[in-house]
Design brief:
CATH topology of the largest domain: TIM Barrel
Strand content: 15-25%
Number of domains: 3
InterPro entries: PLC-like_Pdiesterase_TIM-brl, Telomere_Capping_Maintenance, TIM-barrel_MTC6
Distance between the termini: 34 Å
Keywords: Glycoprotein, Membrane, Signal, Transmembrane, Transmembrane helix
Mean pLDDT: 84
Number of strands: 19
Low-confidence stretches: 22-27, 465-474, 494-504, 509-520
Transmembrane segments: 468-491
Bound molecules: 2-acetamido-2-deoxy-beta-D-glucopyranose
GO molecular function, one term: phosphoric diester hydrolase activity
Membrane topology: Single-pass type I membrane protein
Helix content: 25-40%
Largest sheet: 9 strands, mixed
Radius of gyration: 28 Å
CATH class of the largest domain: Alpha Beta
Number of helices: 17
CATH architecture of the largest domain: Alpha-Beta Barrel
Length: 520
């Protein structure tokens, strides 16, 4: 009995300690972003609302290497259904972690499309993707997913085969398992272009342009763009939902162009739409590529057991803008610290020439700083104001900022725009600086918006509730665990009381021994 009691006590203590560990780690999978990281990802997306979809930075994976690399069906005693379930759980993890580009090899097999070299049906894959899209289908978390299909190169399927094998009809499969309403198709692009709702890199409405991310997500209400990577000219998998390879600039191995380091190189780079690089990356070079305007497609080799190691690459790239552990979550609005006002609701661009790094950071709106301005609509022409004595509120009042004529208070929205700021700083011999950028959470804490200090949070109600819930959920669960422990303890009150007595007796004994002198 005493043995059991001791074990029980030890168990309860372990429970208690685990409960008090920060954030209750056991609840999260490696892929689940923290509330803070979700805020960072969302604010990045929101800043991209007016950027065309061919220019937004995304992080992708080549699933052949990242997920389906080892043939573990044959080496384990799981049946194929079980392994496919594991694959699909891990795919959900990748999407949850912020991966937005999926490269998938597919092949026809006995009248079905399957993922190459596996028994996994394409339809099962699409079902998994669809449930992710459904679970993120609100203004807070909806974002674009780019799906690159790679069928065998010289595959020919003529339309008669569809009659005998309807499951080979990709249009049908996509309809049934992804939902045509979520797919941005070539015909919708054609309509957008005809209506003047497609733009080139310089904000001109063009017949070969692309819609902005905002139009794509909120006006057209689309989530997915599908490309056939296999063919240069005519798609082998002819479907009205699928774009040919020619829309992208997709390269493998080494980057074909240099990182832009002049204004004209930057301008040229932004005329190259959908720039992807499929390669084996390391922690250092991947962020370098992102800062040069290239979307990385990670083709490092992982498997279902080692997949979580991809986190080191994703950590550096999914959030490219904010610094580490930013944006710091602020719950209070204005506080008074040593007789000065403090409101941690404004963002600064922090540049350090030593590391050549530039990040967004949360700062006190009442600090005095210089501000960053952009020349009208020219996204690569920047200027830093001379005066460094402006609080956020005095820098940008209602409709009249301290920026020079023809310049507007702004924020670098893409890695290339940030590169332009970097070039400007270098040219001006600016070494280390913190400057105001047009990004703040003044109207609602943790809802980062652009448009000056009076901009309002577009999802005020949802965001405060959501943040609240996600921030409190672990706490609630922990408290519940504590409550259970307390209840348990009170049921077992007597034995524990006994134990306390025991302790007292032991303590008494020891102190007595000390008092009387330890016998040698
Ligand atoms: C997008 O453009 C509109 C109109 O110019 C502007 O009101 C809005 O603030 C811009 N949004 C972002 C995120 O830049
Ligand atoms: C994987 O294992 C299956 C069954 O053993 C086999 O048919 C298939 O060819 C293997 N694929 C590869 C890529 O080794
Ligand atoms: C796999 O799942 C399918 C349908 O869900 C079922 O018909 C089949 O029997 C399962 N196979 C195994 C080996 O469990
Ligand atoms: C499929 O398996 C074959 C044989 O192992 C291999 O050569 C090929 O690269 C694999 N294809 C994919 C897409 O994994
Ligand atoms: C989502 O955003 C769109 C466009 O900004 C808006 O029309 C819509 O009402 C929003 N939906 C919700 C639920 O807030
Ligand atoms: C595909 O077909 C072209 C010509 O039809 C041929 O030159 C090429 O070698 C083929 N590629 C493969 C991988 O079979
Ligand atoms: C399609 O393929 C079948 C056999 O697979 C062939 O008999 C038929 O002539 C082909 N049709 C066309 C239009 O190529
Ligand atoms: C493929 O499926 C789509 C949608 O179900 C259908 O409209 C189309 O006619 C099919 N194509 C062929 C060649 O059967
Ligand atoms: C591509 O398709 C177009 C029309 O659909 C056709 O005229 C052309 O010959 C095709 N090219 C190839 C290489 O098949
Ligand atoms: C990439 O560049 C390195 C060195 O610059 C070279 O050794 C390697 O062969 C290149 N790889 C490819 C795929 O071009
Ligand atoms: C992949 O999924 C399986 C089954 O859900 C899970 O046990 C495993 O931990 C996952 N792998 C990673 C790296 O998350
Ligand atoms: C920056 O420094 C270089 C060399 O020290 C000098 O030639 C140049 O005029 C400086 N530029 C500015 C804007 O001060």
């Amino acid at each position: 009995m005493p043995m059991q009691r001791a074990l029980l006590k030890a168990y309860l203590w372990v429970l208690l300690i685990i409960t008090f560990l920060p954030n209750c780690h056991a609840i999260d999978s490696w892929a689940q972003p923290s509330g803070q990281r979700r805020t960072a990802i969302r604010s990045q997306r929101d800043m991209l609302a007016n950027v065309t979809i061919d220019e937004i930075p995304i992080v992708g994976v080549d699933l052949r290497h990242v997920l389906f690399s080892d043939n573990f069906t044959s080496s384990s005693n799981l049946n194929t259904n079980q392994t496919n379930t594991i694959y699909m759980n891990n795919l959900s993890d990748l999407l949850t972690a912020g991966v937005q580009g999926l490269v998938l090899d597919i092949e026809p097999n006995h009248g079905f499309w399957v993922v190459t070299n596996t028994t996994l049906l394409l339809s099962t894959f699409l079902d998994t993707l669809e449930s992710f899209l459904l679970s993120t289908n609100d203004n807070l978390s909806a974002d674009i997913i780019m799906l690159f299909l790679r069928p065998p190169v010289n595959l020919t399927l003529n339309s008669t085969v569809y009659h005998t094998h309807p499951q080979l009809n990709l249009t049908y499969i996509l309809d049934q398992h992804l939902g045509s309403s979520r797919i941005y198709s070539p015909s919708i692009l054609a309509a957008d272009r005809a209506m003047g709702d497609a733009w080139d890199a310089f904000g001109e409405s063009k017949t070969d342009g692309w819609p902005t991310l905002g139009t794509f997500l909120y006006t057209r209400k689309k989530r997915v763009l599908i490309t056939d990577l296999s063919s240069k000219s005519n798609s082998t998998i002819d479907s009205p939902y699928i774009f040919p390879n020619t829309i992208t600039h997709y390269s493998s191995g080494n980057m074909t162009s240099d990182c832009p380091n002049t204004l004209s190189a930057l301008s040229y780079m932004s005329t190259v739409s959908f720039q992807f690089l499929e390669a084996v990356f390391n922690e250092d070079d991947i962020s370098e590529y992102v800062s040069c305007g290239v979307s990385p497609i990670i083709s490092n080799t992982y498997n279902v057991n080692s997949l979580s190691n991809i986190k080191t690459l994703l950590d550096k790239t999914v959030v490219w803008s904010w610094g580490e552990d930013e944006p710091t979550i602020s719950n209070t609005k204005i506080t008074i610290v040593k007789d000065t006002l403090e409101a941690l609701n404004c963002a600064q661009l922090s540049f350090s020439s030593g590391t050549d790094s530039m990040t967004w950071q949360v700062a006190n709106c009442y600090d005095n700083k210089r501000g960053l301005c952009r020349y009208k609509d020219h996204k690569y022409v920047w200027k830093l104001t001379k005066d460094d004595d402006n609080t956020y509120f005095s820098f940008d009042g209602r409709g009249d900022s301290k920026c020079p004529d023809d310049y507007v208070f702004a924020i670098p929205r893409t890695p290339l725009e940030e590169k332009a700021v970097l070039l400007y700083f270098r040219q001006q011999n600016i070494t280390d600086i913190d400057a105001w950028i047009d990004l703040n959470s003044i109207s609602v804490s943790n809802c980062w918006v652009t448009g000056g200090p009076y901009a309002s949070c577009p999802y005020q109600k949802v965001v405060s509730r959501r943040n609240f819930v996600t921030m409190l959920l672990p706490v609630v669960i922990c408290s519940f665990a504590i409550l259970c422990i307390v209840l348990y303890l009170s049921i077992l009150r007597t034995p524990i009381h006994d134990n306390r007595k025991n302790w007292r007796r032991i303590v008494n004994k020891i102190s007595k021994a000390e008092f009387e002198g330890v016998p040698s």
